[in-house]
Design goal:
Elements: H1 3-8, E1 17-22, E2 40-46, E3 49-52, E4 68-73, E5 80-87, E6 95-103, H2 104-109
Antiparallel strand pairs: 1-4, 2-3, 2-5, 5-6
Length: 115
């Protein structure tokens, strides 16, 4: 059932909220390429929706200027933000660099997001 149809039928009582996530930087990443660097990018996901940053070539301390993502969240009390970093490889599978998972409820309690 589509979200619009579910709302019309009264199945979804709670309004959706928009959560904005900004990926700023990473530090001291592992070198996964033979040149002593990595080509990192971030995959940000909230409630099963994924968005991806640009690749920062040849960096162990990448900075992203344009990595801002917006997600619709049904229940911010149980939703979490997952950021997974990968090293981009043109020929082989991308390498895992690390991840962080932050429940939105923790951010609300710390005052980083509104209620």
């Amino acid at each position: 059932m589509s979200r619009a149809r579910a709302r019309h039928c009264g199945v979804m009582d709670a309004p959706l909220r928009i959560v904005s996530v900004r990926v700023v930087r990473a530090r001291n990443l592992a070198a996964k390429d033979s040149n002593g660097f990595s080509d990192p990018y971030a995959v940000v996901s909230v409630e099963g929706t994924e968005q991806r940053s640009a690749v920062v070539p040849k960096s162990l301390n990448p900075t992203w200027n344009d990595a801002q993502f917006h997600f619709e969240v049904e229940d911010p009390d149980v939703a979490e933000v997952r950021v997974v970093l990968f090293d981009h490889d043109a020929i082989s599978a991308d390498d895992f660099l690390g991840q962080v998972v932050v429940p939105l409820l923790v951010l609300r309690e710390e005052g980083d997001i509104g209620g």
